[in-house]
Amino acid sequence: MPNTLSTLTPFPHIDSTVTTMAQREALQTIFQGLDFGVWLVGGTALAGYYARHRVSYDLDLFAATKSHHQATVLAIKTLADKGWGLANVVHTPHFFHVEVKAPGSSFTIDAVLDSPLHTIGKAHTTEDGVTVASLDTLFAMKCACLISRCAEKDLYDLWWYLEKNPVSMEEMIVHGAQFDGGVNCEALLISVGGSTLRREACGFIVPGSGVTADNVFNTISLLKKEFVIKLKKIYKSLPASERASVLRESAKDMKQDNS
Question: Bridge partners of 101?
Fold first, then answer.
């Protein structure tokens, strides 16, 4: 990724305008007993430590090993010692999800065992003790997520990145493929082109910023249109045999999903 973003380091402390006090307290509690094997990723990592461009009400924690994942889950469960509610828990060997209900604030926490991320990506440990994925790692993860979802907040995150440092669609595909081998032009075209953006889902604006939900909706609608145009151009430039191969693989995947 171009140096203008890859050389940026996170803020020493998470920004208080885009996160709640409960989120910040939860991070301090969770990371108190963890080491570099657990990283904060996702929207809160981006908004809280780099961008300040939107609010984010979830915490995504990716662990390098099974023991790191187990330690993360145990640390999350200690939030109940504060008298906070832990609801709608989903727990598998590689995934843990919980809705945290703290005084005056509710948010979700996802803990994921993801060893490849820690091999491919990079991270920084901040002054407040939280280990945060690097900006170029977060960018690549956002590119990868587009094939499974194309949510309003994801597009707004990518808009922030691209405003700071324009990157071609070809480069975005390369970055995304680092974290998901299924990232290709056709898969992105289906996902992005088939997404429906909702104005009412754009309420993640920063209070007092002057930005409105309408501003966000218009911005991401234009970005989606640009993405589709660029993806169609790339797809049409592929050799006919390659396009046919991609379509066969896509049809095979759809058949497996429906079986």
Answer: 85, 106
